Amino acid sequence: MKIDIDKIKSITLRFLIELSKFTDDVMEPMTLSGMRKRVCYPGLDKRKFDSNIRSIEKRGYIKINRKSDSVELTNKGRIKLLENSGDKIIDGKWRMLSWDIPEKYSVKRQRICRSIRRIGFRQVQKSLWACPFVQADEVELIIKELGLEKYVAYLVVEKTDIEEYLRRLFKDVLKTKSKK
User: Fold this and answer.
1) Helices first, then strands: H and E counts in the chain
2) How does pLDDT run across 26-41, given as a tens digit for each residue?
C-alpha cells in the first residue's frame, strides 16, 4: 500500500488549523469527539482518522487527555502551523534575529535555521536573519520551544542602514514601490 505523504500533511495541517481556530475562539478545551466531527470528511473512515490523530500526537503537535477527551495544541503544533502559513502580510517593519548559539547546541541551531527559513526569514550575515512578514513576530515560539532564549536576540526594526540591501534580498516578495 502506497502512502500519500501530501494527503497525510494535508490532514495534519487541517486538524491543526481547526484546533487552532477553536482554541482562539473558545476558552475551553476541544474534545477529540468534537474534533472528529469538525475535521472528518466523507470518505475518511474512523480508523484512518484515529491513526492520523495518534501520529500527530506522537510527533508532539497535540496533547490528548483521554480521560477528559480533550485535545490541546502544543507549541510544536503552533510552530508547524506558523511554518506552513501562507500569511505574508508586510507592514514596513523588519523582524530580525541575531544569535550566538554555542557549538554544543549545533543541532538546535540547525533546527532554528530550518524553521525560520520556512516562515520567511533570509540570512543577511552569518548569524543575522531578517524577515518583512508580520507573522514572523511569532518566532519567539520557536526560540522558546528550543530553549534558546538566552542566545537569541529578536528585534522589530522600523529603520535600518541596510534597508536597501534588505529590499534587494526580498525583492521577490516586496512591492517595487519606493518610499517617498
Assistant:
1) 7, 7
2) 455 677 777 776 666 5
- What CATH fold (topology level) applies to the domain 5-81? Arc Repressor Mutant, subunit A (1.10.10)
Spans of all domains in the chain:
5-81, 87-169
What pLDDT, on the 0 to 100 scale, is given for residue 24?
53
Chain centre distance of CA 54: 20
**Cα(23)–Cα(29) distance, rounded to whole angstroms?**
7
| 164 CB-contact burial (10 Å; exposed 0-12 / middle 13-18 / buried 19+) | exposed
Q: Would the pTM of this model clear 0.90, i.e. be above it?
A: no
> What does CATH list as the number for 87-169?
3.30.70.240
- Cβ burial of 80 (10 Å; 0-12, 13-18, 19+) is buried
